[in-house]
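Record format v2
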Amino acid sequence: MIQISNLSKSFTLHNQGGAVIPVMAGAALTVAPGECVGLVGQSGAGKSTLMRMVQGNYRTEGGQILVAGLDVARAAPRDIIRLRRQVMGHVSQFLRVVPRVPTLQVVAEPLLRLSVPRDEAEARAARLLAQLNIPERLWSLSPTTFSGGEQQRVNIARGFVHDYPVLLLDEPTASLDARNREVVLDLIMQAKARGAALLGIFHDEGARARVCDRLVDVTAFTPGLAA
Amino acid sequence: MDGTQNALLVPSTTDTPLLQVTGLTRLYGARIGCADVSFDLWPGEVLGIVGESGSGKSTLLSCLAGHQRPDAGQILFDGTDVLALSEADRRRLLRGDWAYVHQNPRDGLRMGVSAGGNVGERLMGVGGRHYGRIRDTATDWLGRVEIAAERIDDRPSAFSGGMQQRLQIARNLVTGPRLVFMDEPTGGLDVSVQARLLDLLRGLVREMGLSVIIVTHDLAVVRLLADRLMVMKSGHVVEAGLTDQVLDDPQHAYTQLLVSSVLQV
Amino acid sequence: MSDDAYNFAYLDEQTKRMIRRALLKALAIPGYQVPFASREMPMPYGWGTGGVQVTAACLTPDDVLKVIDQGADDTTNAVSIRRFFQRTAGVATTESTAEATVIQTRHRIPETPLTEGQILVYQVPIPEPLRFLEPRETETRKMHELEEYGLMHVKLYEDIARHGEIATAYAYPVKVEGRYVMDPSPIPKFDNPKLSDNPAIQLFGAGRESRIYALPPYTQVVSLDFEDHPFRASKADHACDLCGAAESYLDEVITDDAGSRMFVCSDTDFCTGRQAAGHRGRLSPLSKEIA
């Protein structure tokens, strides 16, 4: 489902004397349907960079990132948008939403974009929010006012509201209490069971051990560290 | 690429762009307004154009919307060469399939005409001759832009800036256009009012399947609204791509400067 | 100075020719506003300088001229203009609608139906019907060119929204032969139906604004309206207190400090004609005597 080969990337800082910083070279990995692969490596090794490249958030210099048959490294913007809407879900650590939009709408939005009827979309959003222990009285409020843990769970609900065939998980259990951590791990296991391909960064070693089938150490792809 | 994987990604049903722009150039004497701008816009897509004052983004928008005639280049709307249209056809386009939201609502509204009349004008412009139906449609649209129905007979001069801007949007969208041009639609509004407007615009874009070209200098606005982004400097497009890609991994020196200049909150 | 010192009908021949060319063009494109080189006339703007120039360009020595102001032959404006042409053209004048060949009017169409061969000349203060909502002349010309008349209905919409009905009572906009929207000058909307299919030639002159427009005989003229708020030619719901006419346009006259009032025909020729034929109204001197 995800096939990455010979990936390379560097940053050029035009406003700092044009410094060129190579951050990735020769990266390769695959994730099969129903499989969860965890990225590991020391801080700064490029886990987030790789995730962002798969998501299409960072540009790729060389190599290939096939997601559901689309080469994200070369695809036109609108194809990547289509991929993100239909195929590739994403749970990030940061919540980026229009202030004042109610939480229920924030979570339902990915479904509305897929033309799911509003009733059905909101019902699924409500089910996930309840599962993730967001009190119902908060659903009509904007998540921008929530605590970090609550925002994290809204993000997770948004990521799992549609049965994406591919899911990118960036620290999904960070800043969660034990009870909600269990819920999230359950959601991940369910996604695997239905055949989704998952690629994630988990600092939570217990969680990593429970959900990941394989680990890939990105240090091997980091120029200067690999040697 | 195997068959099952490929089937996951549903091919787009609209494989022709709504708007195709090639080599658009507008000069002011020796000075460049905008030069050699090319892009495609697909149905349902929101394209942001950012750049500082004088970067040519407003010139580009006014050439696209037919307010100025470019010196060179081609604009195809749904396959039709817009620049070759007669003035009558071009103005019909502006009343029907296209809409233009001005930065200052005073430029886009008739301040001496009631809110209902402002919204109804485009309906009457395309032949609406039933008062009751025009009024019902206007009432419905005021509701959609969150203006209370009982304000329908008030003039826009009695409205707050945010309400005026929402009224302008209702006035523009009432005939169900396919392409909307927006020039700094949130400029001059309080931050809280901006958020409300952005939310409203996002909802309308999704529900109506609108294609939008939005010019702004506010990167937060394009991050929330635009699918794709073009960055302009000195009349040229220096970078274009997915909005979050351009903002999070800017390639051009100018874009890097622009992004790093924004205060984080 | 002797009256012989004036050219026939005051204006010089070249000027009249210029106005006639404009008139012919206006007749060829019914409802279209034709610019013309309006002259200074020996009367102030607003007193009918446009109408007077059109009348001057139309008059021949054999014509019989009638001038009315709000329907009346005996008001200052009507009397002055009539005298002006008596002096400068030496034409015969009349108060009778039926006898006149040229009728200059301010704000009314005579009640007596016009006939073929007659010319009705309107005095027009503001020829542009779109101006109230779109002040830019360049833009309104473009709107006429491209038949973008939605704005005209915005004005009627505003009327209904504010007053519950189309409150425009005079200068009510019309569409001519399905093409140009035209201001019929400030005639009461009661007169609008008479614009259409009229056997007479109708000419409109706006002196200050240098515009002429026209309706050739039997032109179709439709008053703008909404399907659910159709045009109605309204008048005061009374009969004339002098001649008893129930179907004529009436002026309301306050008769004392206590607020007593009477309604009389605005068309004085029509009213006196009826009275001469023996018709009587509520307050006619004769009907009082009888009582």
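Residues 250-290 of chain C form one domain.
The mean pLDDT of chain C is 93.
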